[in-house]
Structures
1.
Amino acid sequence: MNEDYLNDLNESQREAVLYDAGPSLVVAGAGSGKTRVLTYKIVHLLRTGYQPHTILALTFTNKAAREMKNRISSLTDEYVSRYLWMGTFHSIFYRILRREAEYIGYPADFTIYDATDSKNLIKTIIKEMQLDDKIYRPNVIQSRISNAKNSLITSRSYAQNKNQLDYDLKCRIPLVAEIYQRYQNRCFNAGAMDFDELLLQTNILFRDHREALDKYRNQFRYVLVDEYQDTNFAQHLIIHKLSEQSQKVFVVGDDAQSIYSFRGANIDNMLRFKDNYSSCRIFKLERNYRSTQNIVNAANSLIAANKDQIRKTIYSENEKGNKVTVMSAYSDYEEAYKVASIITNMMSSGKYTFADFAVLYRTNAQSRILEEIMRTRMIKYKVYGAQSFYQRKEIKDVIAYFRVIVNPKDEESIKRIINYPARGIGGVTVDKLMGAALSSDVGLWKIIADPQAFNVVLNRGAADKIAKFRLMIDDFREKNKTMTAYEIANYVISQSGITYDLNQDSTIEGISRRENVQELSNAMTEFVSMRQEGGSESVSLTDFLMEVSLMTDQDNEKDDNADKVTLMTVHAAKGLEFKNVFIVGMENDLFPSAHSSDSIRAIEEERRLFYVAITRAKENCIITYAKNRFRNGQNNTSTPSFFLGDMDERFVNFDDDFMLTSGYRPVNKPVMDRYTPKPVAPPSPHTSLRKISDVDKGGSEPVDSAPSGLKIGDKVTHERFGKGIVTSLDGYGNDAKATIEFEVSGTKLLLLKYAKLTING
DNA sequence: GGCCGGGGCATTTTT
DNA sequence: TGCCCCGGCC
């Protein structure tokens, strides 16, 4: 083990790692080495005598857990990191709940319903209750139930909770309580928990079974939490219960990056940490190692507008760097075009590869136009956030078979496969079976096993088909007793008719589906052999399902290493960094989202989201907005986001268009000064122009804000060519040239000494 | 049971 | 615009 590991840390990081006298809250600014502190803290604990299995380290994503494990492995020993209890909240407590299933009355091999399963069940229930799904919108009901569970309100207490009932009444959906109740029963009868239920049941386990709580309290001598600002109440309480006796709790997070309140995350957990742990110590990591000073300062000036936050001063000792750039576009189309042009130009400097660029947006729908333009401009890109591997229909179908084999009660999975591939068991028949299951309060599988016994009236054809289906599943279950996970998987895929069905379709999509199923099979082979190397003798389907039901990571991407520009939502970008970041669509009602306009809390969260976006950039951050945007089937005019006005112009280059139209009030200048229209002069040979690779380099140069200086993105009018946009600049003084894309005349390279140009205001 | 077309709809989504 | 869901039709 490396003896000098503490030397890798700066003073405040080291202090946090070494402190052991009580609860610690590490407020870690963007790019301040948060993961490093967490990793080294664990290494330090191991060094000072903690056994690996006594350390509980919780993250939000599998990826984060995996990366941290790898880093710890490289600093210690691989076998040491293997025995750490490190993983996502859900996977860790899934493991514990399976082990303690008897206490809570669930089968040990209970299924996990993902968001789709649970929404399908909610839809079914709404239908069964003969409610109008326009009023009882499944999405709304789902989030109501989810929020309740996150706040530890069980279906029973919901039905007695005046606040909830009043609120539902006010929203004209008084029957949510009953839907929740039915939903809960159905999940329980199916031997299934949704994601939120895992945390709720963990709380119930620890509340009602003292011996279970004591067992884990004794085992976990240290509890560490990553991304603490994203914890919800259920998670907070679990952490608190496990650590209140030992007071050995170490949480790391950044309140300024709390962007998941819509998933139940409660920033108060962080802001009020000291209320729950009175003897806690707060450490602040304020040095940003990622970004230039201008980027950090611009982000700081933005977030300063938020009221609710822990005071801290993030600073950078990197070079000053370029100012953050804000530029406008006429349309979403032109915006994409500008982004593409700048990427192309910066690429031509030879300083970057495509992977050094990311384009971030507020909504997934914005990716389409970017993709379109990137394709025509021959820019390689990849879009994140599309369906993850395990969400794909064909994968869910196969996994549904696995789930039914392991857990016969899993109703959502039975419904999914009973007629896939098509075997003539239609909707009417399924409804009959479901009806019988409901009225006799017996699982769907029991009915399928013997419909007659429950007086289900079926015609001969249907009865035969159901019997055949049943025999097939029985056969799978029998085989599953002796086969390893991948053997049974391949058997199921071929015997169920899935292979045949997929082979029928030779379209591109069809081939891709086939490949995905093949991919799943490969993944299972790999899983089994990895487990066997790890010492497990037989690796069952159950083992695989355990692993896979909480694996929604999209890390199965094959061409991940390829050099491509990244397109993703800001949410998806959290935790990542890129040399050059574009933030597009910076417009009111889009960013911040129109949905947030009614509450200050929501606006502040949107502002944090913008903060997250800016702080992804290491070298250049370019922000764009469009004045016209095609949205929801129509063209809308839009105005620049009022967030832009929160940023201090000492660190940001606003284009002239923004300055004249947005009503921007500069932070450090008299207001009147700003409103005086500036004379628009054609660029003279003396105008200091800089190369594209130096765009806005050095905020110290006064020229940055000079109104006559031509900048990338400026709209200009040429005597002969008409209106155009500056897409790149090159050369100095007499040699200064600009590439301009004219609306009608195409792209021209002009020597500015001669060009008759006017900058449009 | 599967295909087609109209109507309604449209943040973000670590698990 | 484009996706999803449902109802009607073959």
Note: Chain A has 32 helices and 23 strands.
2.
Amino acid sequence: MDQPIRVIAFDDNKDLRDMFRMLVDAQPDMVCVAVHPDLAQMMRDIDAAQPDVIVMDIQMPGMNGIEGVRAIKARYPAARILMQTVFDDDDKVFDAICAGACGYILKTAAVEEMTKAIRDVHSGGSAMTPAIAFKVLSRFRANEPATTAEQEYGLSDREKGVLTLLVKGRSYKMIAEELGISYHTVDSHMRKIYEKLHVHSNAEAVSKAVSKRLV
Amino acid sequence: MDQPIRVIAFDDNKDLRDMFRMLVDAQPDMVCVAVHPDLAQMMRDIDAAQPDVIVMDIQMPGMNGIEGVRAIKARYPAARILMQTVFDDDDKVFDAICAGACGYILKTAAVEEMTKAIRDVHSGGSAMTPAIAFKVLSRFRANEPATTAEQEYGLSDREKGVLTLLVKGRSYKMIAEELGISYHTVDSHMRKIYEKLHVHSNAEAVSKAVSKRLV
DNA sequence: GATTCCATCACGAGAATTCGGGATTGAACC
DNA sequence: GGTTCAATCCCGAATTCTCGTGATGGAATC
């Protein structure tokens, strides 16, 4: 390895901070550049510390962990954040995911698990406990009706192109210009699209196209 | 441990099948109850084999892996399926997730990784490579209702109601009737909606409403 | 009590869409 | 060689949307 992974951590418990630093520094490919007891202090230090991975608890005093992730992401969109959680069946993990964290491990995880998670996160991946991964996949399936209801409405490529531009908010006239065809042709394609999608208006066509992920 | 984990595998390559059986049987807590060269045969054998975990390749001869998962899930909804994939950046993993598989590991994974994945899947969790996990989280974020964005746009209840009907394909006139207000009022609400959503057409408003889950 | 939203309603003009009719070309298929 | 179909184009009329420029009453906020 070329450069050690620069890790920065946040925890309100001093013993855990010291322990964390010790464990990380014991890794040949990592260096713990800082540990902080509160978020504000850590935020101030990020510029100087230039961490590759930020490790923080989802439960935090004063500010909740999700807000913390959001705050860090707002200022450092490229930050790679690994969350530690006591309960991995907490619905908060979903909020944390949406806030932009890219790893979720148990606070009780073994050292090897934690360091593996840090390495995974650092190398561009995500780390999760199997239980969290299962919840994420379940939720993912619920949100993704597209593939299950993979109804092929039989739209031609041209029709898809027209529909795509329509979804982007273009008018018939603009679509005609962008595709280099006449307004009448766009109209004609739209009629076909209405027919195939069984809709009767611009709005309904767009709605169906977006929700069924046809474009 | 009480009962060994019953594993069944599908692979079209005989050497890999034998290898797989050997590796699994070498685990103290697992037993490979069967390996099959094709899906039909495996399907017939599932009742007799009573497997806890099914391991199969996402690339399959004849039938694609996603269809295989669907077929198994259709008959055995509780089946726990671990997919093996050569490329973990393939968009097919999303299809497989939706089909119901609960693990995605690389075919080149080390033995310990594979057996850990089998154990994770067996104990009710999910297993993924960090790269796949990252892609899933990214997609997950994109799909989740934007909790922050909802407030950004600041749509009133009435505006949301109007927008909801619009998304369903209603015309202004129909919306007016359904809500018991005049056409002009609908028009007025729509203007506000355009303004708040920063869009300039019916289609774009619907598109944004659906994709940002505003309704 | 003034201000600020929200929801409601109104007129008019111009733009855009929808839908009823068509038509032609070229490629694919049997 | 005939048929089907996607893609292209056209006209005209009815309908619908968009937007400028208003107004009123009520509720909440300060």
Note: The longest helix of chain B spans residues 183-197.
